[in-house]
Amino acid sequence: MNVLVFDIETIPDVETGRRLYGLEGLSDKDVAEVMFNNRRQETDGSSDFLRLHLHKVVAISVVLSNGDHISVWSLGDIDADEKELLQRFYEGIEKYSPVLVSWNGSGFDLPVMHYRALLHGIQAPRYWETGSDDQSFRYNNYLNRYHERHTDLMYTLANDNRAIAPLDQIATMLGFPGKMGMAGGKVWDTYLEGDIQSIRNYCETDVLNTYLVYLRFELMRGNLTLDAFDTECSRLKDFLIIEKKPHLTLFFEAWNLQDNEKDNR
After folding, report:
1. Using one digit for the tens of pLDDT, what is the confidence trace for 193-224?
2. What's the pTM value of the predicted model, to 2 decimals?
3. Residue 164 phi, psi (nearest 5)
4. What's the CATH number for 2-263?
5. Where are the chain's structural domains?
6. How would you classify the pairing of strands 2-12 and 55-66?
7. Helices (H), the chain
8. What is the 3-state secondary structure (H, E, C) of 82-140?
């Protein structure tokens, strides 16, 4: 079975912001500030988090687990535009029909990607299948929050919107590294600095945390034995060591430190 765990990072869609608010001539940074300010007015000052259709995808990171193979990467080259990132994501679904796993994918990542795919004219018939062409998708598809072709761990574990929790806190609670490198609120500033690589690295550590929480979830519901869970964790650690990428090495070291502290309790 192919399991694809995914996470995205976004910035303000300043192109749409210019059209919506008549802001031609302003810099990207100034357009974004107007967009944030308008959102604060809409929420009586409680939030400047933009509505989902005003987000632009700048990174999609994944963990792919397939039998004895595991890999972690960000889609596309560092210079790839948003359309290419989205095409690669949906092409993977078209080709492999993986089980998707996310943290808040139903509430954020997937709706954002829907709007962006709509904008770019990207076709994804397998993703949108609900049984009209393939009956196996009628009762288990990517679009229903409680179907297993897409497991949104945040909602599945909470079972109620009032009980949802942040990924980094759940990961830390379980002895995994949790938040590393930056916070989501820093992505726009990092993008303005031209540091796309740091955004991709951050996204990869987030998707690693999601994958580890998923393994614990599979253990909890009996789809993994304790030995199988330990084997999957060891396999991932081996991958992180072999890759020799600084951000993955830091993740490995933080994870090992958590394990050692747990063993000494």
Report:
1. 999 999 999 999 999 999 999 999 999 999 99
2. 0.95
3. -65, 150
4. 3.30.420.10
5. 2-263
6. antiparallel
7. 14-21, 28-42, 82-96, 110-120, 125-128, 153-158, 167-173, 187-192, 196-220, 226-243, 246-263
8. HHHHHHHHHHHHHHHCCEEEECCHHHHHHHHHHHHHHHHCCCCHHHHCCCCCCHHHCCC
